Amino acid sequence: MQLTVQGAAREVTGSCHVVQAHGKTILLDCGLFQGRRSEVQRKNLTLPVPVEQIDAIVLSHAHIDHSGRLPLLVREGYSKAIHATAATCDLCEPMLMDSAHIQEKDAEFLAKHKREHFEPLYGIRDAQRTAELMVAHRYEEPFEAAPGVMITFFEAGHILGSASVAIDIMQGTHRKRLVFSGDIGRSGLPIIRDPKPPLEADWVLMESTYGNRDHGTVEDARAKLAQVVRETAARGGRVLVPAFAVGRTQELVYDLHQLAEAGEIPRLPIYIDSPLATKATAVFEKNTDVFDQSERFVRTHNGQSLFQFPLLRYTPDKEDSKALAGTPGPMVIISASGMAESGRIVHHLAQGASNPRNTIMIVGFQAEHTLGRRIVERREVIKAFGEEIPLRAQVAVLNGYSAHADRTELAAWLQAIRATSPRLKDVFLVHGESAAQEAFADQLRGKGYRPHIPAAGEKITLG
């Protein structure tokens, strides 16, 4: 068996890994790279492997940095199955359609304003055809992705439908198992179930986004959220939240609802200004069977809709979104994209980043060279739509809302696998920046593992 890391190698976007065994080629994820346009355009256009060589694709979850290049493969001729959980299949259709729309609009913008020809990676029809190829599977029910290659999904606890992937290969009379972590979530989050590590592994291909730090508790994040909303409302400002349309938005809505009901924040309007988030929320309401079933969560929502209450307002239409600029009074605006690289949040930042009464609240990881990262770094000036804007708004970073496990949680997830597989030594770290990966590798060496940090394109022979 051979593993080739073709994305998210020493970085956190573009997840894509190639597994070859028994003459078959399985692709694990095929996500978009994000960052400087000049750098990521070439990387996004580069196919991980010729499409005619791919026998099946296995998708860990719907986030665009894991799924966003699938329509490119389809445009280039891929026509076989894309395997995922049922909720991931449901989420991918609106997410990939949205991504195709952004691709097309970006090309139009560059042609109009910079007189630069920019071919979109793919179009709406490619995204539609991709959704048609998706095959849904249940958690913990093995299926054959290709002859001799068995796949099992396990709950990753990252977003709705997210999965860790166990790949089982028969080598003679022995079964060998490679586990791909996908993105590992946190325990104790509302709505999403806790991660469930697969049993047994010979090798682990593992994310390491927060391999060098620990998060605050979920309770601390909720308390900080309440504080930010109260203080911003007292100034008469707006809370502007770049948030991933899937996962983060729904968790924030849930907590804001609970805080308002408890009187811990003023009863101010909460706008979900993202057509994608609106569609994704409908997918959540369709897939309640995979919600958290903890006593606290079930008691809190008591069978009622989590995403419909008087303070919450959706703005699917462009005109409704534009009208927010002239709407008076404090408010919370949650809008995609999560790293502030595209979508309506960029308009809100262009209008509101220079106002010291406002707060820009960051609730997730921001990759290098993104607008979100520059806000976290509190640059004096940021750019939106080519215009320089002074950053005078308050900036609040709530890492407790991260959907990624921290270093302690990552180590505990891996230890749970090794408890059933004492033979497990080799761990391949992906989906992390160098500082996080090196720190986590040092931690793993101290626990008796053999950590490796593959470079992009590196081929690893397993067995």
Task: Supply the key terms.
463 residues; alpha/beta; Rossmann fold; 2 domains; 7-stranded mixed β-sheet; globular
**Tally of helical segments:** 14
SS strand fraction: 15-25%
- State the name of the first-level CATH class of the largest domain: Alpha Beta
CATH fourth-tier homologous superfamily of the largest domain: Ribonuclease Z/Hydroxyacylglutathione hydrolase-like
* Uncertain stretches: none
CATH architecture of the largest domain: 4-Layer Sandwich
Mean pLDDT: 92
What would you call the structural class? alpha/beta
The CATH topology of the largest domain is given as: Metallo-beta-lactamase, Chain A
Counting DSSP E segments of at least 2 residues, the number of strands comes to 22
Largest sheet: 7 strands, mixed
Helix content: 25-40%
Task: Assign an overall shape.
Answer: globular
Count of folded domains: 2
Spatial sequence of strands, sheet with the most strands: 6-5-4-3-2-1-22
Task: Tell me the span between the first and last alpha carbons.
Answer: 7 Å
Indicate the radius of gyration in whole angstroms. Answer: 22 Å
